[in-house]
């Protein structure tokens, strides 16, 4: 398998004698020449493409890359392009080396006799069981293009929803970081300048100013310890969430109760539930099996456990609408839509409408939250920075009054 990190640029003549040029990944120059000859190209010159200092190496494959890849494959197959050739076109045309490497590995596996689903299953980090199972169902039913289109749509909608959630969380997080950095700069560099000035006056400092000066001295002496504690807390938090299910469950419960953010995350979980179940049910996956996969896609322990309880009740012969009502975590509107879908035989369509509705709700809620947080954040920053400035000027004000 070619190392997609090494790219060769070449010029040559095609079968018609026309001069063409392009790029191709290969282990070495000899392999690149052999690959080009196999494609009917007579190489005139070839050289290794220099790596950009800003390219950042291979870069890792992100979920957005997978969603785009699935959409490209859908377009290729719907256009009548054979599967192996579709891999070749999509892989060679991808600008991200890591993604190109992944696609060409899939191509090699399929050329070796494996099915599309089997090739995908070798990369569980990028293609989860839901995607693999749907692709397998499409191959077995002879409707790969249709199922792949559903998978691509599902991944696109899921990534769009994740983007909205990240947008909601990024703004306040960024402001907190900026506030910490600004405060640290003031305490380490600015306050000491005023402290030297105040020392020359020989007068007693106001209590508020003295507190800020003491905090500045502590920060200058122990900044490394403060930074270490912050890093340690972050590391322990991440590891505890990853390794301790009870702690992760507690966090999932608390974030749903959090003001402002809780309703957004709750709507996002419902949207993921509805979108995933709609996709799997429309693909012909049995409801009980679909609920098993859906439980892991909700992104929250509360909804994951609720979905598993729904699966057990449905497996025992209960209707989906009643099992949803028993969990008490789904709004009445969602339960009613599912009830209508069950009675009319259009459950997948109703769930898709629910997903569309809650995805739009998340979008609107994120925009509203951003508008709400802007003045609040300005107030917090104003109080923080303004408080430090006032503390530094209090002695000067007092001296002015004495004079």
UniProtKB/TrEMBL annotation:
Q: Which InterPro entries match?
A: GspF/PilC, T2SS_GspF/T4SS_PilC_CS, T2SS_GspF_dom, T2SS_GspF_sf
The question of whether Zinc-finger is a record keyword is answered with no
Bilayer topology annotation: Multi-pass membrane protein
- The record places domain Type II secretion system protein GspF at 69-192, 273-395
Q: Which GO terms describe its biological process?
A: protein secretion by the type II secretion system
Q: Which GO terms describe its cellular component?
A: plasma membrane
What keywords were assigned to this record?
Cell inner membrane, Cell membrane, Membrane, Transmembrane, Transmembrane helix, Transport
UniProt-listed Gene3D superfamilies:
Type II secretion system (T2SS), domain F
Transmembrane stretches in the record are 169-191, 221-240, 376-396
Q: Where in the cell is it found?
A: Cell inner membrane
Claim: Transmembrane helix is one of the keywords in the record? yes
Q: Which family does it belong to?
A: Belongs to the GSP F family.
| Record PANTHER family | GENERAL SECRETION PATHWAY PROTEIN (PTHR30012), PROTEIN TRANSPORT PROTEIN HOFC HOMOLOG (PTHR30012:SF7)
Protein name, entry field: Type II secretion system protein F
Organism annotation: Thioalkalivibrio versutus
């Amino acid at each position: 398998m070619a190392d997609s990190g090494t790219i060769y640029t070449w010029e040559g003549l095609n079968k018609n004698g026309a001069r063409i040029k392009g790029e191709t990944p290969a282990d070495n120059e000899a392999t690149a020449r052999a690959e080009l000859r196999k494609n009917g190209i007579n190489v005139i010159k070839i050289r290794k493409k220099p790596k950009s200092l800003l390219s950042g190496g291979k870069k890792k494959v992100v979920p957005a890359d997978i969603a785009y890849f699935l959409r490209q494959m859908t377009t290729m197959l719907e256009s009548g392009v054979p599967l192996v050739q579709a891999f070749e076109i999509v892989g060679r045309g991808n600008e991200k080396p890591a993604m190109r490497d992944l696609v060409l590995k899939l191509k090699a596996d399929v050329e070796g006799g494996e099915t599309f689903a089997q090739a995908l299953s070798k990369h569980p980090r990028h293609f989860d069981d839901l995607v693999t199972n749907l692709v397998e169902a499409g191959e077995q039913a002879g409707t790969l293009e249709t199922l792949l289109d559903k998978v691509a749509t599902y991944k696109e909608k899921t990534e769009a929803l994740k983007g909205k959630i990240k947008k909601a969380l990024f703004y306040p997080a960024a402001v907190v970081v900026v506030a910490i950095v600004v405060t640290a700069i003031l305490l380490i560099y600015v306050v000491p300048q005023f402290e030297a000035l105040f020392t020359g006056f020989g007068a007693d400092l106001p209590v508020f100013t003295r507190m800020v000066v003491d905090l500045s001295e502590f920060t200058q002496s122990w900044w490394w310890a403060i930074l270490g504690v912050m890093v340690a807390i972050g590391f322990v938090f991440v590891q505890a969430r990853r390794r301790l299910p009870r702690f992760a469950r507690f966090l999932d419960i608390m974030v749903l109760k959090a003001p402002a953010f809780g309703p957004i995350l709750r709507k996002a979980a419902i949207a993921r539930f509805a979108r995933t179940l709609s996709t799997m049910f429309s693909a012909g996956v049995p409801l009980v099996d679909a609920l098993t996969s859906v439980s892991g896609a909700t992104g929250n322990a509360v909804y994951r456990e609720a979905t598993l309880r729904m699966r057990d009740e449905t497996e025992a012969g209960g209707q989906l609408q009643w099992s949803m009502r028993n969990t008490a975590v789904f709004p009445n509107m969602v339960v009613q839509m599912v009830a209508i879908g069950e009675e009319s035989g259009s459950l997948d369509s109703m769930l898709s409408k629910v997903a569309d509705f809650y995805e739009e709700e998340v979008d609107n809620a994120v925009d509203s939250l951003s508008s709400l947080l802007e003045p609040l954040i300005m107030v917090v920053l104003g109080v923080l920075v303004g408080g430090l400035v006032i503390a530094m000027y209090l002695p000067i004000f007092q001296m002015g009054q004495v004079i």
